[in-house]
Prior knowledge:
This protein is 40% helix and 14% strand. The protein is α/β, with parallel strands linked by helices. The radius of gyration is 20 Å and the shape is globular. Bound molecules: zinc ion (ZN).
Amino acid sequence: xxxxxxxxxxxxxxxxxxxxxxxxxxxxxxxxGRRAARAAALGTLLLVTxxxxxxxxxxxxxxxxIFPIYDVVRHVAGSAAEVVLxxxxxxxxxxxxxxxxxxxxxxxxxxxxxVGHGFDDWAARAALGAGVSRLVPVxxxxxxxxxxxxxxxxxxxxxxxxxAIAKTAAAELERxxxxxxxxxxxxxxxxxxxxxEVDAEVRRILVDLPTxxxxxxxxxxxxxxxxxxxxxxxxxxxxxxxxxxxxxLVDFQKTIRACDVRVVFTxxxxxxxxxxxxxxxxxxxxxxxxxxxxxxxxxxxAELLLFDARAVARASRGETQ
Length: 321
Ligand SMILES: [Zn+2]
């Protein structure tokens, strides 16, 4: 199976500041018009479906916007399809802008698997430019979280939701490749069993922690927390792209102190420059939680979930990474 990357890496940028109160989350600012416009554009594109002619001798080419979805799709596809990853590992989906070369790299894909809900609307623009008209959100059969009236799009961050994503991807691949149905079903069953193991392992890693409260740099771990009995008491940047606010920063600091949080989790895709001096003032350590993976130590979706579980367990016990 060939694997290719559609888009080059983009630099992480400094992120704004916001917070939640221990035991009661701070209401977020309302979404920007730009984000709402992008969501509308994606919705429009999703109404358009179609399949271009593709020679039978050419392997089916499909794409996925982010690494976790890409890894799930490639496990399910096996050798039946070539899978293209759109967002380079290490880049942030919240700031990503596809380049013309990246759009060209997407050409020939029959479908782009997307997160949706405004998370990866850049995929719609790239797909449009590449002549790819079918985008498939992978959230079927997933109970979506709502935060302050908006859907939390980070739904891949639990192994059971990963199983739902795998089933959605398999159904689409089988539709595109009816002759490979047996192979895809076989791959799906094996991967679902693997994700059951991962789910059990994550629960084992997170059993009997001194504290189950965590603070994160952005609000990506709600599904992970819900699935595994953790509580996200504060986020430094709950709304990517929003301006830092002094009020939010004050609330963040109050929450960290009130909840006796000792570690704030940063993310490899986001800059930590704004957080570091605040963490120093608060006397808290910084550790890494990764919502996306594709980097050393989490080269697969399963490994990503295990990496994050171990990071939470270590932080809870006061161990350094
Ligand atoms: Zn995010």
